[in-house]
Amino acid sequence: MHLNIKPRYSVPKIIVFILSLSLNFPLVAQEYQTFKAQKGDGIYSVLKQNGYPYSEYINKFIELNKTNLGKDNALIIGKVYRLPLKNDSVATQPAKIQPKAKPRQEPVPEKTVNEIFGPAYREINIKSKELAGAIYYLESGHGGPDPGAMGSLNGHSLCEDEYAYDVTLRLARSLIERGATVYMIIRDPNDGIRDQQYLDPDKDEVCYPNSEIPLSQVARLKQSTDAVNALHAKNKKKFQRLVVIHVDSRDEKKNIDVFFYYDKRSNTGKRLANTLMQTFEKKYAMHQPNRGYSGSVSERNLYVIKNALTPAVFIELGNINHTRDQQRLIIPDNRQAIANWLRDGLIEDFKKSIK
Ligand SMILES: [Zn+2]
Questions:
Q1: What is the pLDDT of residues 233-287, one digit of tens each?
Q2: Ligand 1 centre distance from Cα of residue 350 (Å)
Q3: Could you give the number of structural domains in the chain?
Q4: Tell me, what's the pLDDT at 60?
Q5: How much distance in Å is there from the Cα of 344 to the middle of ligand 1?
């Protein structure tokens, strides 16, 4: 059930209103309501303020106004936009633009189930609709025959693909909790989210939808990028982001923190990377004020983000050979914290894009 915001007219106003309507155009015709975009307006806020369920109407809105939208579907100040017709409305009552109404909280508690998260995490409660309409392709590095970078700790070997995968799964779940649509590009049929320090390496990961991962690096990168681009084509015109998650291996004396990379041709990718890093800076300042954060954002020539059609960010979660970075990876709560911070950064990025 969605409640519409209905303007409360006093009786005389209603009469005047009906009179003026019947003078101007026949009551039977379905008329589009229009509004002029003002500073701070975005598709999301305008739909919300007018009682449209965002996820149902975002694509109708874009379709209706595509010639007047700016980059990333931004509203352009001063331009006039049409609101979609509501399926159930008689359309004789103009939607009232309410300048600074608070966005409505969707009251619907919803649940969904996805086996990829494993028995303990398969059920997901949808906590909010903040990311309704957003589509994410999440790709963890390596997998299948390729474990990626390897480190070791207390006699255990740490494989990049397993740790990147666990963080990516946690991020996927937490985006779904906020109403997003998520595709896991690299998939493990039986790992799920694992609350252990040492994640046993295996080789049974596949690439979306269910393809065996080749050993050759070139073939592997092409496979996952093709998978993302095929999905991108299906979801044309919708809000989409690709998030690629790796763990680096460098000299063990280097403490490298979390790094964000974008492709030089993508301004949206650059803004996404910056938004994520700013979120990390804020989170570290809040939770570990004396720690200092030395991650950074930079452009980098990487096959996946260069060839993906979706705005993308490539993230390195740390140095698998460095003691402090290893703590970020092996402690399950830390992996969850990284996932939550990335989610908060992605929410920020989504808000910026629909303004
Ligand atoms: Zn890697």
A1: 999 999 999 999 999 887 777 767 899 999 999 999 999 999 999 999 999 998 8
A2: 26
A3: 2
A4: 86
A5: 23
- The HSE-up count of residue 323 (CA atoms within 13 Å, CB side) is 2
* 303 and 328 fall within a common domain: yes
Between the alpha carbon of residue 338 and those of residues 41, 181, 294, 334, the distances in Å are 31, 20, 15, 6
- Distance of CA 19 from the midpoint of ligand 1 (Å): 68
Question: What's the CA-to-centroid distance between 22 and ligand 1, angstroms?
Answer: 66
Q: How far is the CA of 149 from the centre of ligand 1 (A)?
A: 6
Could you tell me if 174 and 92 lie in one domain? no
Task: Compute, in angstroms, the gap from residue 165 CA to the centroid of ligand 1.
Answer: 11
State in Å: Cα 340 to ligand 1 middle.
21
Of 82, 107, 132, the one marking the end of a domain is 107
What pTM did the predictor assign? 0.70
From ligand 1's centre to the CA of 277, what distance in Å?
19
Per-residue model confidence as pLDDT tens digits over 75-87:
988 899 888 887 7
Low-confidence ranges of the chain (pLDDT < 70): 1-30, 88-109, 255
Q: Clarify whether residues 118 and 103 are in a common domain.
A: no
Return residues with CB closer than 5 A to ligand 1 (ion).
Answer: 141, 148, 246
Distance 160 CA to ligand 1 centre (A): 7
